[in-house]
Every structure is written in structure tokens, then in C-alpha cells.
């Protein structure tokens, strides 16, 4: 009953409703893409992209430009680049991505401190802010989510094939490179839209956690995909409620709820396998 | 006209040439065993045949089979070992090659074919099991069923018995031999296990780091100098391997 009142109180604030709508859509996309990224050992790409996103947004703020207009193209280009790094030098790619991540983060911090100083804006990019969502963001996240969902369903079987065995898929005529790029670009869009609620430091949790959590118990790819989206959306929502209820930052609360879910699923998985 | 005709094929990576000036021909129904030391370009040749690499020189001409209609059993990757996928999902994915670019979902025919190929490999009862929970031998049968969904004519196998115990190895060899003998599927198998592989094959391609050492029938190969050296070495390796397992 208390929970219900809390939730209805939350939705009486329009900025909170907007944040919840955008967040749920982002959580959904992140979970879908996360399954492929995690299984292909591309999780680091998500982390790298969010840091590049931070750099891009800081520069946009310094230049007084619209953050999204600057960040989206830069992060999409970075997605191409990081994907190439991951595909090419399999062994060194994790180090190379970490290098780019920290360089982008450093660039962002330097640009900001030289111009406006580390303002509240930058702080909110780092750790997320539910106040940041405008009506435009709602439309943007709706369109990104619609694109991700439609493409994911249409290409579901092919995405499975390239995730499980890229060489085999390519040999049977599937354009694996194209689908890799598609996943990377969609991830870039999801990250740019989501990082302002979740924060640069926490958005990759939204991509990695749901997939890893559901892999503890699910045995088929389809089950993993469906379970991930449910886990992701539920954890996001619970995280928001917790954040509102006890006044903790939204991004951190959501990742914390995800971590708890992971531990629960991990234990269930262990018990089942015995 | 031969099913596969490989003419002066040269394949290279950025780091250098892996296969140089390779020529061989396969007739429909052949069972070719590709042997050679590590680094002699065996797996590269398979990638070239599948069209995963563009030849630097020369060409591979297929007759009566297109590149997309080749079934492929790759070396297992680390990613696959703990991949959450049901056996049926994996086998079905072999049918994707037949889809013209746009069709997004599997048809009833695809599903029937996948079930039939699982039946052929004796894994129907594993349909709903998770791929990662299976034994190595079972996993190879799943991947073989998937390959059979992609082809009815030509199967490329890249070291299919690596990591399998002797019983599973023997079973897999006999499945492959059956496919060749009963269903006239042409087989190209890369193998380290020379003596065993020679038993079933009718042609041998022996690749060396400096180029092709031998191409011809298995009988010729057995009586050649090349095989004498290689087989002896192979036996020695086996003994060492067995000691290591004990």
C-alpha cells in the first residue's frame, strides 16, 4: 500500500514521469543489445562509448551547443571505431578501448574545467540526473526504442547466428559485418539517450547486468533475451522507486537493484545446477 | 566437370602469405583429408573455400554447388562453450543461408529440416537442452546437424575431433563416413589425426609451410615418402598425448 502511494506520488511530478518513460525505453533497448554485446565479448564497447559520450557532451556544453546534436554523431563514429578495434586485434582490444575511454573522459574534464568549471551539468553527466529529461528526450527515446525493437525482431535470427558463430553465419551468406555495425550504432544511440539519466559511469551497467543476470538461469537464447528485457525494465522501475523513496541518486540506485537481481539469479542458478 | 576446382589459389593475411599457389580438384562424392603441420594454412584454406577471405591470386570454382550452400563445421570457439542457446536454436540457424535476404523468420520447412537433421545425428532427444550443458561429442553433433541444414552437397570440417575422447572421436568419424558413403556428401576435413582420417578418405592434401607437399589419392599417399615421415611423427605425438592424459 505504501509502495503504491509512493509510486502514484512519483508520477504526479511530470519530470519524474518523463524520466521513467525514457528510462524504461532505454532499459529495454540496453537489455536487448546487451545480450549480443556480452555474448560476443563486446561489453567493453558499451563502457567505451559512454565515456566518449561524456567527452562529447562536455565539449557541447563548453561550446553552448545542444548536447545531443553533438554527442550523437561523435558517439556513433566512435562506435564504428571501437567495433573495428574489437574485431581486429582480438587480444589487445580491451586495453585499446580502456585507453580511448580514459582519454575521452580526460578530454571532457579538461575542456569543462577550462571553460565553465566543473558545474552541476558535468556532475549530472557523470552520475546521471532525472531532471535532465525534456519532452524532446521523450520523443527521441521513443524513436530510438521503436527502431531498436523493430530491427531486433526483424533480424533476431540473424543476430543469434552472428552472436553464436560469426564465421558460420558469414559462410552461409549473412552479412555479419553489417549486423555488427548495426548493433554498435544502436548501442551508441541507446547510450547517448540513456547516459543522462544513468550517468556516464553507470550506463554500461544497464547494458551488461540484465544479460549476465538472465544467463545465470536461462538455457535458451530466446529465454535470455526475454528475461533480460523483463529484468532490465523491472530493475529500472524499482531503482527509480527506491531512489525517490530514500532520496538516493537514480543511476546508482538502478545499478544497485540490478546488482541485487544478479546475486539472486546467481544463487538460483547455483541451486538449480546442483 | 569437378565439384570444386582450386586454381593457383593464394590467400594472405596482413602478416603474410598463408596459402600459396594451391591447385586441387574434387569430384562429387570425394572425401578429402587435409593434413599438415600447424601454420601450413589448413584453416586458412577452409576460410578461403567458404568465401570468408578473398583470394589474393587464383580462384576457387564451384560446379553444382554455390559457396553459400557449403556446410561448415568450425573449430569451437571460447564464446560457444558457455553460450546460452538451446540445441534446436543452434541447429535451426543453419537454415538461414537459404533465406533470401529479407525473410526474417524460420518457415515450417526449416523447422522440419532441422528436426530431420537432428534425427540423422541421433540428437533428437537433446532438442530442448542447453548447448553449454552438452558433452564435447554432443556439441559436435549439434554443429554437424547445423551444417547439414546448410548443405546437401559439400561439408567442410575443421579439426572436428579436437578435444573429444576416443569413443566420441570414433563415433564422429563414423557419422562423417556415413554421410559420405550413403548420402554422397563431399567431405573436406582438416585433421591432425592423420592415421585415423586416412582410413576413411579417398584423397589427401598435405600442406607444408613452404607449399603443397602432396595431393592425390589416399592409397598413393600411404605409400609415399611424405606420409611415411608424417605418420611416424603422428604416432609419436599420439603416444605422448596418451601419456599426458594418464
What are its keywords?
heterodimer; A: 274 residues; mainly alpha; ABC transporter involved in vitamin B12 uptake, BtuC; 13 helices; B: alpha/beta; Rossmann fold; disordered C terminus
Number of strands of chain A: 0
Q: How far do the termini of chain B sit from each other?
A: 50 Å
CATH superfamily of chain A: ABC transporter involved in vitamin B12 uptake, BtuC
Largest interface: A-B, 29 and 33 residues
What can you tell me about this protein's structure?
The complex is a heterodimer of chains A (274) and B (246). Chain A has 13 helices and no strands. Chain A has 274 residues and is mainly α. Chain A has one domain (2-273): ABC transporter involved in vitamin B12 uptake, BtuC (Orthogonal Bundle). Chain A is globular. The N and C termini of chain A lie far apart (38 Å). The mean pLDDT of chain A is 88. Chain B contains 9 helices and 9 strands. Chain B has helices at 42-50, 78-81, 87-92, 108-120, 136-150, 166-183, 194-200, 218-222, 225-245; strands at 4-13, 16-26, 31-36, 57-62, 70-73, 154-158, 186-190, 203-208, 211-217. In chain B, the strands form 2 sheets. Chain B has a 6-stranded mixed β-sheet, with helices on both faces. In chain B, strands 2-1-4 form a 3-stranded antiparallel β-sheet, with helices on one face. Chain A binds chain B through residues 39-41, 153-158, 160-161, 164-165, 167-174, 215, 218-224, and chain B through 47, 50-52, 67-68, 70, 72, 74, 77, 79-80, 83-86, 89-90, 92-94, 96-97, 104-106, 128-130, 133, 146-147, 150.
How is the secondary structure organized here?
The complex is a heterodimer of chains A (274) and B (246).
Chain A lengths: L1 H9 L3 H26 L3 H20 L4 H22 L4 H22 L5 H8 L7 H20 L1 H9 L1 H6 L4 H23 L4 H13 L5 H26 L3 H24 L1
Helix pairs in contact in A: 2-7, 2-10, 2-11, 2-12, 3-4, 3-5, 3-6, 3-10, 3-11, 4-5, 4-10, 6-10, 7-10, 11-12, 11-13, 12-13
Chain B lengths: L3 E10 L2 E11 L4 E6 L5 H9 L6 E6 L7 E4 L4 H4 L5 H6 L15 H13 L15 H15 L3 E5 L7 H18 L2 E5 L3 H7 L2 E6 L2 E7 H5 L2 H21 L1
Parallel strand pairs in B: 3-7, 3-8, 5-6, 6-7
Antiparallel strand pairs in B: 1-2, 1-4, 8-9
Helix pairs in contact in B: 4-5, 5-6
